[in-house]
């Protein structure tokens, strides 16, 4: 499965149908930018869009997956299943990259929460002492305000 070949096939078939990218996008309920990505080979249509895309372009699903127009032979279930497996594998790779990014983001958040939970333990290294005192005072004021709110008091300014 070659994205550039598939993209070239989508572009050629769309032009043969005298359709613009916007018209094809409207027929598939996607953005014209998505169609542009497919045609440039920067992305691949979602598996749920393969059949409607093939119908709109007058192609077979297997033709889209191969990136070339097939012969007149009928697509067997095995061929279609093999092609669908390829698309699912591509989608899984994308999902794993997304999950890896989410795990890294979560690890950073946990580290920030763990190491940043006690502002009083931090020592001013290259920070101006006046600024440090202001930040520390503000931190204490916010803690006091939060404790007052939890105790049923109202927020007051200091």
Verbal overview:
With 158 residues, the chain is mainly α. The protein has 2 domains: 3-92, 434 Repressor (Amino-terminal Domain); 118-158, no CATH class. The protein is 67% helix and 0% strand. The chain has 7 helices and no strands. The protein is elongated. The model has no long low-confidence stretch (mean pLDDT 77).
What's the story with the biggest beta sheet?
Answer: none
Total of helices: 7
- CATH fold naming of the largest domain: 434 Repressor (Amino-terminal Domain)
Give the termini separation. Answer: 66 Å
> CATH H level of the largest domain: which superfamily?
lambda repressor-like DNA-binding domains
CATH class of the largest domain: Mainly Alpha
Q: Which spans of ≥5 residues are poorly predicted at pLDDT below 50? A: none
Count of domains: 2
Strand tally is 0
Q: What is the general shape?
A: elongated
What fraction strand? under 5%
Q: So, CATH architecture of the largest domain? A: Orthogonal Bundle
Helix/strand class: mainly alpha
What would a concise description of this structure say?
The chain is mainly alpha-helical. It has helices spanning 3-16, 21-28, 32-40, 50-57, 61-66, 77-115, 129-150.
